[in-house]
């Protein structure tokens, strides 16, 4: 029960007896008996005394009623004042409760700069940032999921098993999207790499982590989850709704995780796609540009790891990069795909207004 409702109940109980007394007094009409037989009328002091007594009682009742009305008025006034005060206290408490969140958001936003574009609704808030750390150019979307259903992972519905991120965004009516997990080609078709979850179901079953692969997705509470999982029960405990697999984990619980030697040099630099989260569960999409995927342009994973750590992320996961890297926002391709065109991939993370 809210504080305002408790105050309402208290004053209802307080004023109930007084209101009842007023109602009873308004109904009470004392009978007045007169002897109309003049011949048999005999003056006596009895009726006079009774009349005087009745008058006295009426006077007392009138005074009591007046006192009751005053008391009820005073109670009503006090009730109104108390209700107003309680409402102000509730509003103040709500404002104070959001202050730490606002302060934290300002702090992490300041490290990104000034957003070049913002889209907001009752389900989501998306802010686009253009970054230039020095050795490469990058783009970031900071996303607050007000509704967990504002993010999902799409699975390509084509004969080839793949579609561009733009096609996935348009087909599903999303406001933003990035490429998700890795893939393997077989018999002319493109398949998601390793453990993949769509609509709460394992697409090809669970596959334990191998070769530093990691799973990343969203759980039922709208929180980004990820890491290495060696049993299905271990992953099921996190209630994944969807997710995909690639390599490596860059940040976990505020700690930089070791980058496998292979991924430090092969390739050294490349276009990159990374997804991560802040401690308040806001999501960050990070896409670095590069003119090819052969090691001579783009960003090193260690550079991105340091950048995201300095920006305050607590978890970060590398997604498929190179020619697969694609960032779509508000109907446009934001990055510059190294293939010259968007590459068709099996899975994409999508966000909805």
Please, could you describe this protein's structure?
This protein is α+β, with helices and mostly antiparallel strands and 353 residues long. The protein folds into two domains: 3-100; 111-351, no CATH class. The protein has helices spanning 3-27, 45-110, 165-172, 232-236, 261-265, 301-310, and strands spanning 117-120, 124-131, 138-145, 151-155, 176-179, 183-186, 189-192, 197-198, 201-202, 214-219, 224-227, 240-246, 249-252, 255-256, 272-277, 283-288, 315-319, 327-329, 332-333, 347-351. Strands 1-2-3-16-15-17-13-14 form an eight-stranded antiparallel β-sheet, covered by helices on one side. It has a five-stranded antiparallel β-sheet with strand order 4-20-5-18-19, with helices on one face. Helix 1 packs antiparallel against helix 2 (45-110). It is elongated. The chain starts with a helix and ends with a strand.
Radius of gyration: 36 Å
Shape: elongated
- For the residues shown, what is the average pLDDT? 87
**Number of E strands:** 20
- Label the structural class: alpha+beta
Largest sheet: 8 strands, antiparallel
Q: What is the domain tally?
A: 2
Sheet-strand content, in percent, reads: 25-35%
Pick out the low-confidence regions: 32-43
Element-level helix/strand string? HHEEEEHEEEEEEEHEEEHEEHEEEE
Number of helices: 6
What is the topology?
Layout: H1 3-27, H2 45-110, E1 117-120, E2 124-131, E3 138-145, E4 151-155, H3 165-172, E5 176-179, E6 183-186, E7 189-192, E8 197-198, E9 201-202, E10 214-219, E11 224-227, H4 232-236, E12 240-246, E13 249-252, E14 255-256, H5 261-265, E15 272-277, E16 283-288, H6 301-310, E17 315-319, E18 327-329, E19 332-333, E20 347-351
Pfam families: NAGPA
InterPro entries: NAGPA
Organism: Paenibacillus odorifer
């Amino acid at each position: 029960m809210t504080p305002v409702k408790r105050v309402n109940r208290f004053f209802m109980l307080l004023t109930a007896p007084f209101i009842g007394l007023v109602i009873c007094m308004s109904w009470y009409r004392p009978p007045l008996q007169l002897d109309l037989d003049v011949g048999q009328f005999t003056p006596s002091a009895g009726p006079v005394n009774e009349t005087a007594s009745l008058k006295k009682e009426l006077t007392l009742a009138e005074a009591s009623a007046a006192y009751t009305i005053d008391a009820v008025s005073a109670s009503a006034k006090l009730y109104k004042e108390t209700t107003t005060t309680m409402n102000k206290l509730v509003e103040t408490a709500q404002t104070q409760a959001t202050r730490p969140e606002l302060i934290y958001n300002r702090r992490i936003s300041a490290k990104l700069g000034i957003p070049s574009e913002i889209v907001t609704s009752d389900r989501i808030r998306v802010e686009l940032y253009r970054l230039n750390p020095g050795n490469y150019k990058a783009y970031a979307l900071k996303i607050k999921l007000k509704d967990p259903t504002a993010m999902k992972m799409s699975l390509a519905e084509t004969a080839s098993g793949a579609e561009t991120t733009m096609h996935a965004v348009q087909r599903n009516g999303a406001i933003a999207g990035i490429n998700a997990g890795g893939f393997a080609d077989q018999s002319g078709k493109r398949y998601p790499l390793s453990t993949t979850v769509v609509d709460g179901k394992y697409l090809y079953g669970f596959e334990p982590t191998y070769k530093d692969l990691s799973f990343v997705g969203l759980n039922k509470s709208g929180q980004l989850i990820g890491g290495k999982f060696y049993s299905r029960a271990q992953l099921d405990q996190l209630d994944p709704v969807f997710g995909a697999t690639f390599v490596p984990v860059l940040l976990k619980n505020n700690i930089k995780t070791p980058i496998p030697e292979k991924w430090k040099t092969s390739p050294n630099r490349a276009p990159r796609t990374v997804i991560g989260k802040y401690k308040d569960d806001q999501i960050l999409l990070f896409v670095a540009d590069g003119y090819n995927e052969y090691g001579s342009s783009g960003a090193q994973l260690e550079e991105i790891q340091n950048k995201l750590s300095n920006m305050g992320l607590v978890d970060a996961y590398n997604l498929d990069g190179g020619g697969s890297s694609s960032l779509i926002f508000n109907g446009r391709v934001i990055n510059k795909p190294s293939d010259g065109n968007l590459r068709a991939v099996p899975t994409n993370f999508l966000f909805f207004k």
